[in-house]
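testing teh design pipeline on a random one, pls ignore if ur not involved
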């Protein structure tokens, strides 16, 4: 089940909105067809993402975790860049996206959505 933490979502939207943000999506698919339903969601979502100026930067299958500790394995990871935080908010509020979101929600057993911002000098 995907649900936003109201406090975290509000804090995310309250920060500076003048630069792009990348959303890290860590996904664990639902058994019995979750991966296939997620691919269906992506086909529905891609034109909507484009409409809001967002683009998928990377998507790939998770491989075995190489570190010790509390690390979890994920079925897949997707990086999506949004031009601004407000574009992400507008997209999740969009009625057409809500239809696609219902398909995506049925596809996943667990998800982490973590916004990322660029670190100057890292690249």
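output:
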């Amino acid at each position: 089940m995907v649900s936003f933490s109201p406090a975290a979502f509000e804090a995310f939207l309250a920060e500076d909105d003048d630069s792009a943000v990348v959303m890290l999506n860590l996904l664990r698919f639902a058994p019995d067809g979750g991966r296939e339903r997620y691919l269906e969601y992506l086909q529905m979502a891609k034109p909507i993402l484009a409409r809001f100026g967002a683009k998928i930067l990377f998507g790939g299958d998770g491989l075995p975790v190489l570190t010790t500790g509390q690390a979890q394995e994920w079925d897949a990871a997707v990086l999506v860049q949004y031009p601004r935080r407000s574009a992400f908010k507008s997209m999740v509020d969009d009625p057409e996206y809500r239809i696609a979101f219902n398909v995506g929600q049925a596809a996943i057993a667990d998800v982490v959505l973590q916004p990322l911002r660029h670190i100057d000098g890292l690249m």
